[in-house]
Amino acid sequence: MSTIATPHDRTLRRVHSHRAGLRTVAFVEAGKGVLALLVALAFIHMIHRDVDFGDVAERVLRYLHIGLHHRLAQQFLNAAGKLSDAHIATVLGVAMAYATLRFAEGYGLWKQRAWAEWLAIISGCIYIPFELERLIRHPNAIHWVILTINVLVVLYIAWVRWDEIKAAHAVER
User: Fold this and answer.
1) Residue-wise pLDDT tens digits, 35-52
2) End-to-end Cα separation, the chain, in angstroms
C-alpha cells in the first residue's frame, strides 16, 4: 500500500475539509425553508378562521412591546390592513417558492454540489443591496447582524468554490 499522496487524494481531502461548513450553511438554509412554510401554514390557518390581519398585526406588536406610534409599526399595520385574498395567495405562493428554493439549496450544499454553492452565492448577493438600504435608512444592531452574517456566508461559499476550482485545476495538471 502506497503512502504517497496523489493530487486526487489532496483534492478529496480539500473537498471533505469543507463538509462541516457547507453542512452548517445547508442546515441554516433548510431552517429558512421550514420557517417560510410555518409562516405559510399560519396564513392558511388565519384565512380559514376569517381573521382580521390588521387586528393580528396590532396584537403581535403589543406582544413584542413595540409601540404602535413607531413608523415601522405603522407600516406593518398598514400592510396587514391591506391584505386581501389575492394578496394572501401571492404571499403563500412566494412562501412556497422560497421554501422550495431554500430546501433545494440546503440539499445541494449538504451533498456538496457545485450548483448549490453557486446558488448560495447568487441568492446571498441578491439580498445584500436590500440589507444595506435597510441599514442606511434604519441603522440598528439587528440590521448589522443580518448583513454581517449574509456577507460572511457569501464570502465563505465563494471561498469554498474558489478552493474547489483551484483543486480541480491542480488535478488537471
Assistant:
1) 999 988 888 888 778 878
2) 24
- Give the pTM: 0.72
Q: Which of 35, 21, 22 is nearest to 98 (CA)?
A: 35
Q: Sign of dihedral through CA atoms 99, 100, 101, 103?
A: positive
φ, ψ at 158 (rounded to 5°): -65, -40
Q: Are 46 and 53 in contact (CB under 8 A)?
A: yes
Q: Are 37 and 99 spatial neighbours (Cβ–Cβ below 8 Å)?
A: yes
Which set of grid coordinates corresponds to residue 171? 488535478
pLDDT digits (tens, 9 = 90+) for 92-114: 889 999 999 999 999 999 999 99
In angstroms, the CA 25 to CA 102 distance is: 11
Element (H, E) at 105: helix 85-110
99 class by beta-carbon count within 10 Å (0-12 exposed, 13-18 middle, 19+ buried): buried
Residue extents of the structural domains in the chain: 1-18+112-173, 25-111
- The rounded distance, in Å, linking the Cα atoms of 7 and 98 is 39
Q: Which residue has the cell 463538509?
A: 19
